[in-house]
């Protein structure tokens, strides 16, 4: 990320006009997040506002959305594994990582939604938990932990929720062998 | 679960009154606990913070209990008959449907998602199809939109009728089971007429619906509407003012709007707290902005209110269904795009192109441009959403369904604390969880 910002700064004096042109962000909440948290990138995805934020500030972004922008509900938390993607849209200013944690927020009072995405590297799959901000993140974060092995720091009860407690591996990871039950045949010299 | 940690639930400092009470008690468990308590006090006294929880026990209700709507397990900490805490434990019906969804093409995907919320399958199919259509940037024809709305509302009726039946049975009004099933069966007959299947219909598909409505559908659906309205009047008469029913449900399992919003709880539970939020009104999809209906909401947030909301929502759905019958536009029931929807059976015999398209669609499927989107609609249980990520191939990278029941189960904790065991049954029933959707 440091490399990217450095490169952008290098470019800035050269083509200031191009850099300032895309700045007006059509979504006011997205603009507020980008202004508050450096490194955030606003994208419109099929008409929906999406902000890519650094994973370290996830909880701060959620707190800001709840306290200042009247986002009353955390609708959904999802994790995505991009390991085997055929093609993946590149987003300028975002260093793509293997995992993504996607959180959907809804404001009932302002009747609008926003989606926060943070990139999570495979080497250190940890994200701050949003449960202190929105208690409803409890189950979905446990689900993401269970199925993807992403650790949510500060979660009160980070245990497996769908898979059995003694399960090995995280089944929704793309490199997890799906539904492979070891079978031994009679006389098989090398049981798998 | 807690047995292997000796002394976890025992007090360290047993007051004399408590000791005397334990002496008197003939309960086997309490007498077994006593000597171990002494040991713990001698061994490392003063370490156990929960002094007054010595006499509670943890009971598992489910996963095979008939009133837990499938395979929900409730870990309840009981003090006698009082429930101190409830923790829902889920995963007993986990069949990896999201993983399966990554292995199926977009054409096959509806067959998978329709099995999630099996009581209102059309909502699943619709949200999946809408997500695929948004990634493809496809507009479905008007008639397809209205057919989808018609089927979704019929599905809402069926789902709420199922709730009336099971809710009644959970509270001991067993005759409600028969009455609710009677009307639901009529709605399922409409599904069979239109889609060929009673449940898991796989009717709404990316690009439209699977088939046009059959001849004489208007008359059949209007007949069913009349039957359901009569049935709802009957339930209303039987339960709404019934003193036994009121005694059993009023003021029970109360939850506030703030708690609901904090815990991501949607649907009838949120509306029962006086918060009139319905995605069909607030963020209209399909043609919900062209039909007239009301959002039902009440202000007490208890079991009785949730029962009433679901009862009257059946009537609102009947209203919408009648308007659909009246206003159903002519036209195509699916997109006329050869790359997206299969050709009619007759064309395959005469056209090579049609045969190729048919073969490609059902082997490889269509390709969807890379991207991600989240679509949400109002299912009978609340906001059902579909988060879909595509990488440009014919299978999704990630297909996630935000099941409303999964989130609504989080309300059992706050609603069920400080209730009685028998009330816990009523509270779980009023959440109306469908475990197929919870565990996916």
What report would you give on this structure?
The complex is a heterodimer of chains A (192) and B (440). With 192 residues, chain A is α/β, with parallel strands linked by helices. Chain A has a domain at 23-153: NADH:ubiquinone oxidoreductase Nqo5 subunit (Beta Polymerase, domain 2), CATH 3.30.460. Chain A contains five helices and seven strands, in the order H-H-H-E-E-H-E-E-E-E-H-E. Chain A has helices at residues 2-11, 16-20, 28-36, 58-67, 138-148; strands at residues 41-45, 48-53, 73-81, 99-107, 112-120, 126-128, 151-153. The N and C termini of chain A lie far apart (43 Å). Chain B has two domains: 1-55, no CATH class; 97-439, Cytochrome-c3 Hydrogenase, chain B (Orthogonal Bundle). Helix content of chain B is 50%, strand content 11%. In chain B, a hairpin with a 2-residue loop joins strand 2 and strand 3. Chain B starts with 15 loop residues before the first helix and ends with a helix. Mean pLDDT of chain B is 84; it is low at 1-12 and 26-49. At the A-B interface, strand 3 and helix 5 of A face helix 3, strand 6, strand 7 and strand 8 of B.
Record the SSE blueprint:
The complex is a heterodimer of chains A (192) and B (440).
Chain A: H1 2-11, H2 16-20, H3 28-36, E1 41-45, E2 48-53, H4 58-67, E3 73-81, E4 99-107, E5 112-120, E6 126-128, H5 138-148, E7 151-153
Parallel strand pairs in A: 2-5, 6-7
Antiparallel strand pairs in A: 1-2, 3-4, 4-5
Chain B: H1 16-24, H2 28-44, E1 57-61, E2 73-79, E3 82-89, H3 97-103, H4 109-113, H5 121-136, H6 142-170, H7 174-195, E4 204-205, E5 208-209, H8 217-240, H9 243-249, H10 257-262, H11 268-271, H12 279-282, H13 303-327, H14 345-350, H15 352-363, E6 371-379, E7 382-390, E8 398-402, H16 404-408, H17 412-416, E9 419-420, H18 421-431, H19 435-439
Antiparallel strand pairs in B: 1-2, 2-3, 3-9, 4-5, 6-7, 7-8
């Amino acid at each position: 990320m440091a490399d990217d910002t450095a490169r952008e700064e290098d470019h800035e004096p050269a083509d200031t006009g191009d850099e300032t042109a895309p700045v007006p962000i059509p979504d006011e909440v997205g603009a507020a997040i980008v202004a508050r948290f450096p490194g955030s990138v606003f994208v419109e995805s099929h008409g929906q506002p999406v902000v890519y934020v650094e994973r370290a500030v996830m909880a701060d972004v959620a707190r800001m959305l709840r306290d200042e922008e009247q986002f009353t509900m955390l609708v959904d938390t999802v994790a995505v594994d991009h390991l085997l993607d055929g093609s993946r849209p590149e987003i300028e200013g975002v260093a793509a990582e293997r995992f993504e944690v996607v959180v959907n927020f809804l404001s009932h009072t302002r009747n609008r939604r926003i989606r926060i995405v943070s990139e999570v590297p495979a080497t250190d799959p940890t994200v701050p938990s949003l449960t202190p901000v929105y208690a409803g993140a409890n189950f979905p974060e446990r689900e993401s932990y269970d199925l993807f092995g992403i650790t949510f720091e500060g979660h009160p009860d980070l245990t497996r929720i769908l898979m059995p407690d003694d399960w090995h591996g995280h089944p929704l990871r793309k490199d997890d062998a799906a539904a492979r039950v070891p079978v031994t045949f009679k006389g098989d010299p090398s049981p798998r | 679960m807690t047995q292997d940690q000796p002394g976890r639930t025992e007090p360290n400092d047993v007051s004399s009154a408590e000791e005397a009470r334990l002496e008197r008690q003939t309960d086997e468990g309490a007498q077994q606990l006593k000597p171990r308590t002494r040991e713990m006090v001698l061994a490392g006294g003063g370490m156990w913070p929960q002094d007054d929880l010595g006499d509670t026990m943890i009971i598992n209700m489910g996963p095979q209990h008939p009133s837990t709507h499938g395979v929900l397990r409730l870990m309840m900490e009981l003090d006698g008959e009082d429930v101190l805490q409830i923790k829902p434990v889920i995963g007993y019906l986990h069949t990896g449907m999201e993983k399966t969804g990554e292995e199926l093409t977009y054409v096959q995907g509806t067959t998978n998602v329709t099995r999630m919320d099996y009581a209102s399958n059309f909502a699943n199919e619709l949200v999946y199809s809408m997500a695929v259509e948004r990634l493809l940037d496809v507009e479905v024809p008007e008639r397809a939109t209205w057919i989808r709305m018609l089927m979704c509302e019929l599905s809402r009726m069926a789902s709420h009728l199922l709730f009336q039946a099971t809710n009644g049975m959970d509270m001991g009004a067993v005759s409600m089971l028969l009455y609710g099933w009677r009307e639901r069966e009529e709605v399922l007959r409409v599904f069979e007429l239109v889609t060929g299947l009673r449940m898991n219909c796989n009717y709404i598909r990316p690009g439209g619906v699977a088939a046009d409505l059959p001849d004489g559908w208007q008359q059949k659906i209007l007949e069913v509407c009349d039957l359901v309205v009569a049935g709802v009047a009957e339930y209303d008469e039987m339960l709404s003012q019934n003193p036994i029913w009121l005694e059993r449900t009023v003021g029970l399992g109360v939850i506030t709007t703030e708690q609901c919003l904090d815990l991501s709880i949607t649907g009838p539970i949120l509306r029962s707290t006086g918060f009139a939020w319905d995605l069909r009104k607030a963020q209209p999809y399909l043609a919900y902005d062209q039909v007239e209906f009301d959002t039902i909401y009440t202000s007490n947030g208890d079991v009785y209110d949730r029962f009433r909301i679901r009862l009257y929502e059946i009537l609102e759905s009947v209203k919408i269904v009648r308007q659909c019958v009246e206003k159903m536009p002519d036209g195509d029931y699916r997109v006329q795009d050869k790359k997206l929807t299969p050709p009619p059976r007759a064309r395959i015999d005469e056209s090579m192109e049609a045969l190729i398209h048919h073969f490609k669609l059902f082997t490889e499927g269509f390709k969807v441009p890379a991207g991600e989107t989240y679509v949400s609609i109002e299912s009978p249980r609340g906001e059902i959403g579909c988060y879909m990520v595509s990488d440009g191939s014919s299978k999704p990278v990630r297909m996630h369904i935000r099941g409303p029941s999964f989130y609504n189960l989080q309300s059992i904790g706050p609603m069920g604390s400080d209730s009685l065991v028998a009330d816990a049954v009523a509270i779980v029933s009023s959440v109306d969880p469908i475990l197929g959707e919870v565990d996916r």
